[in-house]
Design brief:
Elements lengths: L3 H20 L3 H6 L10 H30 L4 H17 L5 H31 L1
Helix pairs in contact: 1-3, 1-5, 4-5
Length: 130
């Protein structure tokens, strides 16, 4: 599960980007307006741009945690807490959203990190006993 959690976060990011690009009605308007200062003052454009850009934060969590797992063999518990810190308020504020995916991945990440930590403690005890 440790290696799958970062991959699933990256996959959720891909879905996030796809939804933002497919469901957006403002990217063409922003391009027609020349991009520069084309978003402020239009609530729909602001919402859709922030939704799109938030995907990069999620992508960063996924790719960085993948790197940590590759380098250490362990999943950092912080990933689970970050995903929950995003997902729980989002679920409350926007019940019809991708928040359940974030919450499930956050819980799975915490379970994986706990298992990794327990395995490390058992290995350390074996080494001390030998």
């Amino acid at each position: 599960m440790t290696r799958w959690i970062p991959r699933l976060v990256i996959a959720l990011t891909a879905v996030h980007f796809a939804v933002s690009l497919i469901a957006s009605s403002t990217f063409d308007d922003v391009a027609r307006d020349g991009f520069w200062n084309a978003v402020p003052g239009d609530p729909r454009r602001e919402y859709e741009m922030w939704f799109f850009l938030a995907g990069f934060g999620l992508l960063a969590l996924g790719t960085l945690s993948r790197r940590v797992v590759r380098d250490t063999g362990r999943l950092p518990a912080q990933l689970g807490w970050y995903l929950l810190a995003i997902g729980v308020p989002l679920q409350i504020l926007y019940p019809v959203s991708g928040a359940p995916g974030l919450i499930v991945l956050g819980v799975l990440a915490l379970i994986a990190a706990r298992r990794d930590g327990a395995a490390d403690r058992r290995e350390g005890a074996r080494r001390r006993a030998a």
